[in-house]
Amino acid sequence: MMPIRLLMELISTKLNQSMPQKRPKLWLSVLFWIALVAPAQAALELRVAIEENVGQVKVGSSTKAIVRDAAGQPLGEIAPMNAFQAQASGNGVALDRWRSSSVWIEPQNNGYVWIGDRWYRGRTRVVFVNNGLTAINYVDLEKYLYSVLGGEVYPNWPLEALKAQAVAARTYALYQRQTRGNSIYDLGDTIAWQVYKGVESEAPSLYSPVDSTAGQVLTYKGKIILAAFHSSSGGHTENVENVWSDNLPYLRGVPDFDGNTPEAQWVKTISREELSRRIDGVGNVLSMTPERTSPVGRIITMKIIGDRGARTISGPALRRALDLRSTWFTVTPDGEKSLPSSFRIQGRGYGHGLGLSQWGAYSMARQGANYQQIVRHYYQGTTLGKIKVVN
Fold first, then answer.
1. What is the average pLDDT across 263-268?
2. d(CA 227, CA 229)
3. Would you give the DSSP letter of residue 68?
4. 353, 234 in Cβ contact below 8 A?
5. Whose CA is closest to 17, among 385, 381, 356, 355?
6. pLDDT for 241
7. Residue 100's beta-bridge partner residues?
8. Residue pLDDT, tens place only, 219-236
9. What whole-number distance in Å separates Cα of residue 269 and Cα of residue 272?
10. Is 377 within 8 Å of 236 (Cβ atoms)?
């Protein structure tokens, strides 16, 4: 990725790190400009992989579209509301009668592109790589966020909560672009990156929170942060080292405000047979005992004892194996103590518990917090910055 530098323009904004009171104490901060070096263009364009390493993918346009080859030379046009199956051909792409190592579809008059089974803003590039086709949506960063917000939170949430999510999602996208992007694309479209479903997940109420925070990102010591977020912490977010191996000083556990929200608490009962099937190497599970927990109670490691052996499993691995909402839970056996018939798992929160709690942000906004206060609460010691694209 191209380098990032600070332009140190002193534009002040008033931020508060805590929940608002009747007379909130205002913290004076600095809104830095962060210059993102990019090719000449009016805005920052993200490259989002929609399909990767496939044999064929359907592409089209809602309006007349220009088809270009790898060098940008026009090959022809696609009629409005028409689509073709792009196919791998030799070491290139075959689209109807056109052949090239990569093919561009550029809709005219602000049309949408069709990729796979959805409409997207922006334009499309289909390229042959790794013995298959990858279809990339080139889309303006802010318009990308219209869709991401719809995939991550509810459109009818308070405006300040939506603004906080917009800042977090924008920051997260640019961090991923810097650290995981490659020569073909910047981001993927799945939950492993950020949920991006194109136009179908947009809503009119999501345009304002994106537009009103346009370009704003969170930084720590001049660098864009890993702005992790999750649905609900269950009452307290987590220190990053208790979940991942990273040492990130801005991802610290803080009290959450999600106590009366839908994801704050949950219960799941699993039969002994099902539990034993999902956990290999111990036979019939007899007991589950926490070995290490975080200060707030999330499982770091769990000791599993069965009638054929015992093993220790990490909290995240156990969460995946049992399809649990979080690693903050307790386990109670039901039935006979020597051979329980089932296990009752009582948990809190939904997600890894790092960074922004979406339901916590919802509650903070309902209590009067603005988006600056929300993001500063969940991302400790950070500064709100604004990107400027330069050629």
1. 96
2. 6
3. E
4. yes
5. 381
6. 94
7. 93
8. 999 999 999 999 999 999
9. 10
10. no
